[in-house]
Amino acid sequence: MKAPAARYDRWKAPADDGQLLIWPGPAELLRDAEANHHRLTSADSVLVQNVPLPEVRRRMRLWVGQDDAQLLIAAGHQAELKHAGVWAKNALIAEAADKLTGRAFHFVVDTDEPKHLVLRWPGGSVPLSDDPSIGRAPWSGLVTPPTPAHLRYIEEVFTAAASRWDFQPLLPEFLAAMRQRSLKSSNLPNALTDALHHLDGSLGLRYDATIVSPLYASEPYLVFAHHLLARADRFGANYNAALQQFRHENRIKDPGRPMPNLKLSIDSCEVPFWLDSVSSGARSRGTVVSSRGQWALRVEGGEFRFDPADEGWTAAGRLLSWLRGQGLRLSPRALTLTALLRLLMADQFVHGIGGAQYDQVLDALIASQFGLEPPRFAVTTATLYFPDALRQPRVCLPCLVQEGHRLKHGILGPQKIQLVEQIAALPRRSPQRSALFAEMHDKLTAAWHDAPIRAWEQQLRQAEAQAQEERVLFDRELFYAIQPRERLITLIDRYRKQLG
């Protein structure tokens, strides 16, 4: 089945403070959730490793305690210090689930590289954890929580900075929640997820939050993974074709955007999974090789062959046993994880702008790989600047550059018009034309040192310095708990009103 005609938008984050983006419109978003639920629960002809999709989906949802008849509105993101535009997804899923009498779920990805784990504010920054591996661990689940001493240090440094502000940020409440959880948690994503969930609950947001890595030992996930790897050549071809279609439609010439193609050959296929050694913390890109007419994962201790004819639950059990015996975990990369969540878990999946760009690729892949009309997704983001920025007019560098252009070309007045006309009247490439052209530019250069130009240059230097200072002040990506409580609650109220 071909993916439906693109109905996507050119999403752009709001420029103004306090504004939000919801796509599609709230009424359509809610209708899409119900339509997705009906389509996915009735897709009995779609088989996942020889098991009807609705059965795999029902058992996947049951794994997180979800009633299959109840709508599930979901979002997902890496374990990180989210900015307000990312945090806004939680506001939308909570309010949409409430409107639909459903359940909201936030899936926290602890199997991606650690990033955005430095707490920043205008004039300062400090890593969230004192674990030295915070910037180099293969996945964030390997990073340990901050020690009590480090949390005290963060609090002291931040309190000194915040003492100069005329508002009360929510961050001390977040640090208090981290302090209660750090010694009890096995890793940073667990502590961070619990602390943020607690903080959002205090703001009135109601949703469930779960780390994704335990899902990778579930039978429904392994049925899904086995299905794709047993058909790695077809899946890889569909994956690359979906990427190429996206590049063509968006006039992208870079073969690495939005992500590289999978490397495919007669004897081996790269697959969009990581093969993780849970004991050593090492990771490698997933690749299957040809083995006796089937695709196989091969490691030093042996190989696992994927039989496309196997019954799904039997195949999942065999794969789980082999992975455990080898001390390995099969972790999906971004597009594969989102496919799992959209097909087997959510009735409406909410993306930010970046994820929504990637999921245009996924829509084409779902259509070609499963012969299924892709479930529709939603997009949201919002803009909250650092509160002190709201009282400061923002410098307009393009305006000043345009003013300089006007000054430069108007400084000779009517004389320049006369020179241009004289140049145009002379033969092309003639010495006279070249000499007159050089004369005009010599006069422009000499005139450039006049007082109006010097004043403009001084103004431009000052504006560039101010723009550098504003870069942090107007940074959309500061941790949302830098904001005061009332600004976050006001944004939640805007979502509530939008959803009626």
Summarize the structure.
With 500 residues, the protein is of the alpha/beta class. It has helices spanning 26-41, 53-63, 84-99, 148-162, 171-182, 188-202, 219-230, 232-249, 312-326, 334-344, 353-370, 397-410, 414-425, 431-447, 451-473, 485-498, and strands spanning 20-23, 47-48, 51-52, 72-78, 103-109, 118-121, 124-127, 208-211, 268-277, 283-291, 294-299, 302-306, 328-332, 348-351, 378-382. It is globular and about 85 Å long.
The secondary structure category is alpha/beta
Q: CATH first level of the largest domain: which class?
A: Alpha Beta
Quaternary structure classification: single chain
- The count of domains is 2
CATH third-tier fold name of the largest domain: Rossmann fold
Largest beta-sheet characterization: 6 strands, mixed
**Gyration radius, to the nearest Å?**
28 Å
Textual characterization of the structure:
With 500 residues, the protein is α/β, with parallel strands linked by helices. It folds into two domains: 271 residues, Rossmann fold (3-Layer(aba) Sandwich), CATH 3.40.50.620; 82 residues, no CATH class. It contains 16 helices and 15 strands. The strands form four sheets. Strands 1-15-14-4-5-8 form a six-stranded mixed beta sheet. The protein is globular and about 85 Å long.
